[in-house]
Amino acid sequence: MPGHQNETHTAFDVVWWDPGVLMLERPSTFGLRREELIARDAARPVVEETMAVYRAWQEELAQTIERGRQPGLVVQTVTEWAALDSVAPPELAVDDVRVEDAAAGDRLRPSGARFGALVHAVLGGVALDADDVRVGEMSAVQARLLAATPEETSAADQVVRQALAHPVFVRARAAWQDGRCRREVPLTYLAADGTLIEGVADLAFEEHGRWTVVDVKTDVEIGRLGLDRYKRQVALYAAAIARATSKPATAALLRV
Q1: What is the domain count for the chain?
Q2: Would 223 be classed as within a structural domain?
């Protein structure tokens, strides 16, 4: 039996173990257990058959893992798609895209990503029949949200008022009053190679059974990525709407 001696005058204990009470011959528990259940002397055909089943399972597992690595659907933004210069717009040639100009006045106005975002936010949020007061109010609200400068706010207000006066928006306003106008339209287009292309069209309206799809860009945006790339984008928007509605569509790029 284990003995124990406590020396009251020392700072440690001493413990003795009796080997006679320890299970020194106990079998090890690591590795395979119950080896007696394994048929060590199985016939070779049985072993080969079992190994064939195992190898088939391994191969099927590898194929399943490889299939799982492949995306079921490839998704691209329209910006990514348009950057591929070798890709032609479906169902509508780039040369068919009209380029309209609503920009006027001082070309030394503010520029940059924030100014472009401000123009799009105001133009996308203001009513199509808004007067100058309403445009100014929307410009002030969006400017606060984007932390725009007073110069950017004033310039965006001017740009939006010019855009709303352009003939394209005059036509859109008439269609809007009849419920045939859509703004900030989310679109998806399934390309021939199975790629799903996603984007948002600024403006689309229907006249006499035909859609007009408009994308609005500032001069700075066009200068940064190029006119052809934006023409490809709006061409794809028009193709998506034509396919979805089974009605013809034309595309226009409006410079503001």
Answers
A1: 1
A2: yes
Q: Which domain holds residue 244?
A: 74-102+167-256
Cross-strand pairs, 217:
255
Whole-prediction pTM: 0.68
Enclosing H/E stretch for 249: strand 249-255
> Has residue 140 been placed in a domain?
no
Residue 94 lies in a domain: yes
- What tens digit of pLDDT does each residue of 157-216 get? 999 999 999 999 999 999 999 999 999 989 999 888 888 999 999 999 999 999 999 998
CB atoms within 10 A of CB 244: 13
Closest CA to 188 of 205, 202, 172, 201: 201
- Is the CA virtual torsion 79, 83, 87, 91 positive or negative? positive
Which tens digits make up the pLDDT trace of 130-155? 999 999 999 999 999 999 999 999 99
